[in-house]
Amino acid sequence: MTDQFAVLGNPIKHSLSPHIHQQFAQHHNHQIVYEKIEAPRDDFKATVTKLHQQGYSGLNVTLPFKLEAHALAESLSERATLAGAANTLIRTEQGWRGDNTDGIGLISDLEAVLGDGLHNMHILILGAGGSVQGILPALLEQQPASIHIANRTLAKAEELVGHYQDETLTASGLDYKFPQMYDLMINATAASLDGEAPALSHTPLISSACYDLFYAAKPTAFMQWGKTIYGVKVKSSDGLGMLVRQAAASYELWTDTYINDELVDSIQAELRKKLAD
Ligand code: ATR
Fold first, then answer.
1. Cα(70) to centroid(ligand 1), Å
2. What Cα–Cα distance (Å) separates residue 7 from each residue in 25, 26, 89, 193?
3. Distance, first Cα to last Cα, the chain
4. Residues 74-131: pLDDT tens digits?
């Protein structure tokens, strides 16, 4: 039996997910079909319901449907409930169960980049949009010493932080005069989509790494900015590893198959070459 999977988004043309999942399947001798489906922006629920009727085993959900996927799921994992967003739907008899593997994908990639866990780290996040909402529960679970969220629109950062009763979580605008050293700075602003680094009024002190949730063929504008400011002692990474690792976590949920680091690394290296072509 061939299991059917798909990733839904709008737009979806450039998604690398089918390629990544085919690699997982090939490595483990699984017969799967994994498609890209551009769901209509006003008809996501009907599309997903139809795919359930057609016998699909699992779905990935990307922009702009993660909140809707969370809302329509018959049941939810704890991390999807906390994130208020789902990027993975798992078939059940009754309907779809929602989960969110973005956070775990990020955590495991950060561990690979840093060579260390996030416990006791001071983390600075730039941006307070949907992607930060999705990863925040997983980051907090690692018990960092603090997380500061700086966003262009201060009210959005404050609203996000307000959902948590956590005094280690703070918010500001991008004009903040950062008072302390951070281990890690994560860029989650959409400035990268315009080939820009977010404009900060004051440069924060960073000791270990600059990580961009976005990825591109070349180092992102944020990574280049980080290199100029902090030099080579501070590591820099884009989010390609997170993409592969969130996919691995979804595949594990659907097929109960463990995807090891070696396979993740080789797919990441191959995608890096593919992006450059
Ligand atoms: P995503 O799902 O990728 O997080 P989003 O929910 O639209 O997308 O959020 C985009 C984030 O990028 C927001 O934090 C946004 O800041 P605002 O809340 O002020 O809109 C931020 N952003 C977008 N363009 C930016 C830019 N040029 N400089 C700084 N921040 C930017």
1. 21
2. 15, 18, 10, 21
3. 35
4. 999 999 999 999 999 999 999 999 999 999 999 999 999 999 999 999 999 999 998 9
Q: Give the pLDDT confidence of 142-172 residue by residue, as tens digits.
A: 999 999 999 999 999 999 999 998 999 999 9
> What spacing in Å lies between the alpha carbon of 194 and ligand 1's midpoint?
11
What domains lie within the chain, and their CATH numbers?
3-100 (3.40.50.10860), 103-240 (3.40.50.720)
Residue 274 annotated to the active site? no
Distance of alpha carbon 105 from alpha carbon 239, whole angstroms? 10
The CB of 236 under 6 Å from ligand 1? The reply is no
The CB of 108 under 6 Å from ligand 1? The reply is: no
Classified as helix, coil or strand, 171 is strand
User: Is any atom of ligand 1 closer than 6 Å to the C-beta of 127?
Assistant: yes
Which residues touch 158 (CB under 8 Å, ≥6 apart)? 171
Q: Which of 175, 189, 201, 215 to mutate to test the pocket of ligand 1 (most atoms within 8 A of CB)?
A: 189
Q: Is residue 191 within 6 Å of ligand 1 at its C-beta?
A: yes
Ligand 1 binding pocket mutation candidate from 61, 152, 154, 225 (most atoms within 8 A of CB): 152
Reading phi first (left if > 0) and then psi (alpha if -120 to 50, else beta), residue 95 is in left
Sign, CA dihedral 74-99-264-267, equals: positive
Extract the tokens encoding 34.
Answer: 């994994």
| pTM (predicted TM-score) | 0.95
Distance CA 68, CA 84 (A): 9
Q: Is the CB of 20 under 6 A from ligand 1?
A: no
